[in-house]
Amino acid sequence: MASKKELPHNTEAEKAVLGAMLRSNQFLGDCLARFNVDDFYEENQNHRVIFEAMYRLEQKHIAVDPRTVTDELINSKTYDISGGTEYLMELADSIITFANIPDYMNIVSDQSLLRRFLMEMEDIANTYYTKDIESISDFIGISEKRLADVAEKRRVADFVSASDITSELSKEFETLEATTTDDTVKGVPTGFTEMNKLTHGFKEGEFIVIAARPGVGKTAISLNLAFNAAQRNVPVAYFSLEMPASQLFKRLVSADSGVPYEWLQTGFHMTKQTRLKLQESCKALSKTKLYVDDTNGINILDIVAKARKLKNNKEPNLGLIIVDYIGLVKTNSKNRNDSRQLEVQMVSQTLKNLALELKIPVIGVAQLNRNVEQRGGDPMLSDLRESGSIEQDADIVMLLAQSKIEEAGENSSKNVFEKHNEEVTKQQNDIAQKEGGPDTVMVNVIIAKNRSGKTGKVPLLFRRAYCKFNEPSKEGTEAIKSLDNERVSYI
Question: Which end of the chain is more exposed for a tag (fewer CB within 10 A), N or C?
Fold first, then answer.
């Protein structure tokens, strides 16, 4: 029977690194910042104790050389393991030139990474053979994450100089145009001019949260954003946890064709001309790179795995991921004492990390709690349901607020400010219906947080019958904003 192969390591490279640390303060600092004791092969115990001795000396602000390291080894009772003073002198004297030390450092790093990767795979296999696997999907998801966490450590970037950064910025500024049209925004275009002005498009690595109360249109606007991006040749991955893919596409067809969604559901009013409109919209949709996963109760690790697979195997230019909605995403938490708030925190942190890893924006749809209805007025960041972590992790938070006029009897106790507010809201809704039709309501998209831009309100027309969001005309936008300013001035 063949003996088990040794784990990868390079003893000579380790010796060169330790020798450089003994001889050069620069390499001492570089190596202590880059390595830890586990980066040295487990069976090279002498290298491990020498490295730990140098680390402790540096922590104590004591100069590192063969003599001080010898004293530290004696004090820590690891002198005999280290090989003694003779071995330390051998390490120091072996360095004739420092030119190749960076190469030896890379070798030590690579060998250490490969060892961890192989050990992780072996542990995964042992888990499979020795423990009950409740869910194959969860097991594969967890295993993939463990291996990805190890592999991620190989992506170590060095500092970038000011000259390199400013050189790139100069090139960017040369082509920068003072406009906010979809053709010139730096990120993924939203399809809405006013939203582009505030966000400059959704940029790589950003985690964007869209939140609203039920029925306000959070799924509809996330679909509109997906379609707007896909129409502009941006590949989009849409994870739907509330609605099957066929229903989502019916909504998209309704929005694109102008045929009411109810007609698609019931078949009423279906004429030859209407069917032709639907076929044309289906044809237009078929040409987009919009991918929908409607797995009910999907696990967050499955979302990560499927997004990686889509980008790596099919769509290298994947430009946007949307998850509708965060509150329904499951985690692998086995602890029944973990609150839903903690689970949502895990989901939001993972989605932010996914955005950074794949270098694309990720939109998470969330729900606001009932406080906003009980309090009245516009929603606030504190109204995000279940987790303050969503607010913390998000780069952009957009809260949807529908302009409503509450029914009241003749003996209403509303004060003069509330009555004025209702009058302004009524006038804004009149503008919305004049521009969008009788089914239209005005929805304010409140950009409450924006790490790389401004906050503010974006008024949109939500045509409920068509599941479609439109921008008001330029005149309509100005009139709505003027009424908002009037409301603030009055108060």
Answer: N
Contacts of 225 (CB under 8 A, 6+ apart): 190, 191, 320, 322, 363
**What is the edge-to-edge ordering of all strands in the sheet holding 207-212?**
290-293, 236-240, 320-324, 362-367, 207-212, 396-402, 440-450, 456-463, 468-470
- DSSP per position, 252-298: HHHHHH---HHHHHH-TT--HHHHHHHHHHHHHHHTS-EEEE--TT-
pLDDT tens-digit readout, 73-112: 999 999 999 999 999 999 988 887 888 898 999 999 999 9
Characterize the bridge pairing of strands 440-450 and 456-463: antiparallel
d(CA 421, CA 413): 14
Using alpha carbons, list the distances in angstroms from residue 271 to 246, 259, 262, 336, 416: 22, 11, 14, 55, 51
Terminal-residue alpha carbon distance, the chain: 86
Cβ-contact 474, 431 below 8 angstroms: no
Q: 143: which 2 tokens? A: 């295993």
Question: Which residues contact residue 178 at a Cβ distance below 8 angstroms, ignoring those fewer than 6 apart?
Answer: none
Q: What are phi and psi of 238, to 5 degrees?
A: -120, 115
How many residues are present in the chain? 491
